[in-house]
Amino acid sequence: MTFVRIGGVPHHVVTEGSGPVCVLSAGLGMSWFDWDPVVPHLAPYRTLVRFDRPGHGLSAPAAVPPTAAGEADRIAALLDALGHRGPAVVVGHSIAGFHAEAFARLHPDRTAGLVLVDSSVEEDPRPSRTTAPARVLGAVLCAAGLPAALGPAVRDLAVRAATVRRGTPRPGAGPRPGPAPTDPALVRRVYRTSRVLRGTLLENARYGAVAAELLALREERPLPPGLPVTVLAAPDGSARWERRQRALARRLGARYEAAGSSGHLVMRDRPDAVARAVLDLRIRQEDA
Q1: How close are the terminal C-alpha atoms of the chain, in Å?
Q2: Mean pLDDT, each 10-residue run in order, the chain (288 residues)
Q3: CA gyration radius, the chain
Q4: Is the C-alpha dihedral spanning 110, 116, 119, 123 positive or negative?
């Protein structure tokens, strides 16, 4: 277990594997261990860097509210702290897709490729003017002891809701086995804390502002020419979500792939699809 200090905040980070560097950043309220099913598929071929954003996993609370530029700079600072100076592939799930894209736009020389895993998409974001309601709600819920009493159960319900149901046969194949369950002790260690509840509420409160900032960056800071980008979506029967993900791919000049038999947590439902999307990138890491 390693911690690196970025902007005065201790960040929990796990590094494993060998080869070109690949950063894995999970969605809202998720932790480093949510990438566990992907690791066996990628570690033989990539140096994997998994980290917890402030207020997530085992990282300390945020010192300031999140911004798109701040999250992009966080990834760059993390790589610097670990001694990875060359370009890296960045994989962003859900809201972290905003962060990964911002990193590529603000740190083009550090970016070897992008994989956006069922990324958040906002065509007309409505930024909240303040994070005060989220902070007050967090204080009230924590004072009531909600994280200690219900945190792991709420986490379990959220994962179940975002994970595809198992057991439905696919043409020509049996049901796809689910990933091994996460260690309950780790879930309790993380999700019984007030830190994670507050961090999740704060990041959620800033969601619209981060989305709006990214839209502005798209106008001001183009992606590096020829950057390999893959949008890996999990439509799960939603034609509207598939249209939005395809539109994102067109906007970024990206390759579009659909992860069948998957809910929103593609790294848990289809770790093989995530690994393939990474390994199929024609990355710019020859000099890394």
Answers
A1: 25
A2: 92 97 97 97 98 97 94 98 96 98 98 98 90 94 93 91 59 48 88 95 96 97 96 93 97 96 96 97 55
A3: 18
A4: positive
- CB neighbours (10 Å) of residue 242? 16
User: In one letter, which amino acid is 27?
Assistant: G
| Rounded-to-integer distance, Cα 94 and Cα 130, Å | 22
SS (H, E, C) the chain: CEEEEECCEEEEEEEEECCCEEEEECCCCCCHHHHHHHHHHHCCCCEEEEECCCCCCCCCCCCCCCCHHHHHHHHHHHHHHCCCCCCEEEEEECCHHHHHHHHHHHCHHHEEEEEEECCCCCCCCCCCCCCHHHHHHHHHHHHCCHHHHHHHHHHHHHHHHHCCCCCCCECCECCCCCCCCCCHHHHHHHHCCHHHHHHHHHHHHCHHHHHHHHHHHHHHCCCCCCCCEEEEECCCCCHHHHHHHHHHHHHHCCEEEECCCCCCCHHHHCHHHHHHHHHCCCCCCCCC
What span, in angstroms and rounded, lies between the C-alpha atoms of 89 and 20?
A: 8
